[in-house]
Structures are given as C-alpha cells and as structure tokens.
Amino acid sequence: MERAAHPGDPTIAELGESAVLGRILPRLAPGDAALLGAGDDAAVVAAADGRFVVTTDLLVHGPDFRLAWSTPFDLGWKAAATNLTDVAAMGARPTALVVAIAVPPTMPVTVLEGIADGLREGLAALAPGAGVVGGDLSASTVLTIAVTAFGDLEGRAPVLRSGAVPGDVVAHAGARGDAARGLALLFDAGTDAAGEPDPVRAADVRAQYPRLVGAQLAPQPPVSAGVAAARAGATAMLDVSDGLARDARRIAEASGVDLDFVGAALGPDLRVALAGAEDHGLLATFPAGASVPEPFEVVGSVVAGTGGVLVDGRPVGSDGWDPYSGWDGRAG
Amino acid sequence: MERAAHPGDPTIAELGESAVLGRILPRLAPGDAALLGAGDDAAVVAAADGRFVVTTDLLVHGPDFRLAWSTPFDLGWKAAATNLTDVAAMGARPTALVVAIAVPPTMPVTVLEGIADGLREGLAALAPGAGVVGGDLSASTVLTIAVTAFGDLEGRAPVLRSGAVPGDVVAHAGARGDAARGLALLFDAGTDAAGEPDPVRAADVRAQYPRLVGAQLAPQPPVSAGVAAARAGATAMLDVSDGLARDARRIAEASGVDLDFVGAALGPDLRVALAGAEDHGLLATFPAGASVPEPFEVVGSVVAGTGGVLVDGRPVGSDGWDPYSGWDGRAG
After folding, report:
1. Is A277 inside any structural domain?
2. Any bridge partners for residue B11, and if so which?
3. I need a labelling partner for A190 at 20 to 30 A (CA). Which of A271, B213, B236, B263 fits?
C-alpha cells in the first residue's frame, strides 16, 4: 500500500495535516444544504422538513477494496455512491456527506486528492447539489474511509422495508450481477501468479470489460430513482448491496410476506442476478396499479408468506456477503 | 490485538455479522431524537429547528488508543465524549450518534459489547437523551471506530471560532493538562521493558493515578456547558483537543484578535496546561460583563491583535498534536 514519493508528490507525513487539508478541501464543495461547512468544530446542515435521514458506512482496504484494483478516484466515487444509495432507499433526496479518512502517513497526498476528486464527481453525477460538509483525517496502517450521508424526506414518510403487502408488484432499478461479474473478472485475471491483486493486469481487465469492472469499482446506482419511487407510492424499498436474493428476503421478513420473482425478468444469468453483491440497485414494492417510475422494471410480485423469496413460485436459498466469512485478511 | 477466544466468548468471525449485531444493538438506545433507529437502510432523526449540527471523528488503534491501555468500555466512552464535545462547542445540544466500527474478525465479541456499553454510558452521563441511531460493522486488521455526532441548535446561531472581539473575556471549562499527564504516566510506567504498552503495568498506573489516567482514557468533558455558554452569549467557542495554546490560536486567527491568558489562572503547571492535548475542555469568549456560566472560569481576555496567543501579555509559541508527526506506527 505504500509508494515511493516522487518529487512534487510528497507524502502525507511530509506535508503535515494542515497542508494536506489545504490541498483537499478546495477540491470539495459543501453543497446546497450546507449552512456552515468545514473549518469549525462541526458543520451545520439544513433539514428543511424538521428531520434528516442518516446512514454510515466504512470502506476498509483489504475486505472492501484494493488499491491495486481501484484508483483513488474510484474509491471516492464508490464511497459516495454506496452511501447515497442508502439515503435514496429511504425515499430521500441526498443532501450532504461527512467523510473521515484514516491513511498511512507514508502515502502520497495525491491519493487523498484522488479520493476527494472521486467524491466530488460521484456527488455531482449521482446527487447534484449534495456536497461534503465536513470530515476528519487520521493516521492508520490500513487505508479506511468512513462516510456518513444525509438526506431530506421533503415531507414524505420514509420508505421502510416493512411495508410490502400481498398484491404489490416487485420492481428493481439498476444492475443485476454486473458488480459481481466485475469482481470475478478481477480475481480471475487481475491477479499475479501468487493470486495477489496486480495493478497492471487489473488495468488490462478493465480495458477489456469496462462496463463490468466499472460496475464493481465505480458503480452508478440509480440514486434519483429513490425519490421517484417514494413519490409513486412505493410501499417498501432497499439498497441491493448483498445480492437480490438476500436483500429481497430482508423486505420479505420485515413485511411478513414472500417476494416472488419472475425468473425471465431477471436477465440471462439467474444465479448471478440473485447472488451477485454490490450492485447497489434499488428493490422496491409498489401497489398493484401504481405507475412504476423509470428506471424501475417490474420483476415479480408480493404474495402471502412468511419471509420467503421465490422464483417463478419456487423457493430459493439466500446467498450473499458476510464481511467476516471467507475473508482471509490479505491486505492486497 | 488478537486474543484467544474462551468458551462462551466467541470471536466475531465465529458468531457472524447478524448474531454480533444481535448482541450489540440491545445494549444501545436510539435516544429521544430518533424517529427511526437502526435496522433499515438509514435512520431518521428529528431536527426540530430545521438544521442539524454534525461532526465526525475516527479513532484508530495505535495512534489514537491502545487496547493494552484502554478497556473496550473506555473506547466507547471516549468516542462518545470527544464527539459530543465538538457538538457542544457549537453551542448545540447533542441528540444522536452513528457509529461505524471496523474490527479484526478474530476479536472476541465481548470487545464490541464493551465498546457499546461505553458508548451507552458515556451518552447517559454526558448527554442524557442522546442515543445511537445507526451504525456499520466492517472487518479490518486495525480496530477503527468512526463516530458521527449530531446536535440541535434549538433556534440559536451556532457559536463559531470567529466571533471573539477585543474586550471579551476568555473563559475555560474542563481539565487543563490532565489528559496529557495521564498519557505521560502511561508511557512512563504503563509499558514493558521494550517500551510497548503493557496492560498489567497500565492497570497499576491507573489504580495509582485514577484521575489523571482516567482523564486520558475516559475523559469527562463539560458537554452541557456548551449550551450554557451559547445561552450566555458566548462570542466564540471550541473544543480544546490539541492543547490550550494551539486551540486558543485557532480562535485568535479566526477572529483576527489576540487571546491573552492570565498565567496564574491556568494552574500550577503552565507548560502542561498550555500544551497538553486531549482534555476536551471548552474554550470560549464572552462579552465583558456577561454572566459566565459554571463551570467556566475566566482565564484571560481578548485584545487587539492578529491571531496571537499571549500569557500575561507575552507571546507564547504553539504546541500541539499533529496526527502524522512523531507517530511511529506501533500498533500497541
């Protein structure tokens, strides 16, 4: 994870905290909701309807990303994208982020600049008007990015996981399995002879399969579809981060129903569509007869049940991502 | 940092994510401001006056704490205390926290339970009514705690660093140098022959100097004094995390004034009072004639200047804590 510093590319330790902040903060905008941005003990953010939505997420080098595969820009982009999707899944409009980063002091400051650029561009693309209102910079041997994201419900009730009722349609917006396919490509062909992530091979794989590898490293979730779903009367919604089968079960269990997918609607590779993690699409249920907004596609229906997931009426097992199972601790 | 698991004390990997959450979440209360707590994609928090205060902070094993010195309860307490103080320093009442933790899978789940207990008790003691509304659990080789804290300005303007004017009095609430004295005791006598943190020796030092070592490991900052200062008309305020001299300079620079301390008011050891970091007291300025609220003590005055810090009229140098300087990367 450590790199030799070049002339003109000093390390974080060489620059010191305040000079580092002086190079990062100008790359970030506080956004429309910031009443007071970075620079004091805390920021002040507008919450026009008297409530705010909040979600937090840690990205850790090793289990969550590898610098041999992701550029710093990718990391910033993905950190923004995944948290924005959690806000969107409540039916809220994302307003702001705070970002705390722990970084090895020997790392070039350009890595932090790249992360900041990715945060800024991810916000601009996925949640225009939202910005970074504050943050923290710490030292660690393991690059770690903690993002907390905020959203505005604009007077609406939050869309929970628990509101699906039999007769609702099940709809999905976003990729189905692309991020998992991209990760499989990276593990297959983006590693060296010893199985360790290799930046040159990874760049080759990405050039060959830009859509699939991009879906893993810098996903483009349908963030604005969250508000559209809430306005259309969505009865339940969540961010599909652990795979469609596992996340559908969360709605089914919270709502006390079964979700029955139409297999043919999920795409050509049913197994990857159901099991593939990290797509960060939105899975929602709508009343029968509701006008399901773009880019949602109807992929099934809610039926009476007790927390099960079905495909064409037949139960399927859960399959997903547990951060503690199968992790071998490689720091890649 | 890794411990052998005992029967009845399984590791996080052995239990798996959802069982771990099942043991942690019941130990935490969402607090009075939580409209929707943990369990969905995001939480919903009340922001009665249409704004919220937000601050975020990362605590990293090694530079920020050592498990050989701090109990898990201490870590949770300190993570709450330091963030609550940043909220208080804006003149806001703390309402809620979100907490993201990255933890080695080989760590006993009792460590996370202890952190949760410390968070709960720290909140109950320092900010009654505030709670933990959400979080995240990740895997890392380095134990890392990211806290984001929220506060309610209750209709008041935030108290910034930039509002001090000549003629104001300078007042301080909280310890002056105790946390630094406690840390020095731990480095002096809480280490083994090789200079590495040693839990048995550290426990001995703590038993001998409970107040000073406690000030370092589980500080008790004057959180409620933040609102009291705002109500009393404080013109500037901040959390003293990097030492009185360094943090006083931040007010002086932001306000375009000098802060002149009365040396005798700072206690018997002026050097430690000025340089000692991590006390998390509140430094504030008030208009001359304002009724300075308890437990603030008047310790100086604001004079015309250009960002300087004086003691009895004589300039003093800055001295404080830069997380990247002098850190040797030991993981303790």
Report:
1. yes
2. B108
3. A271
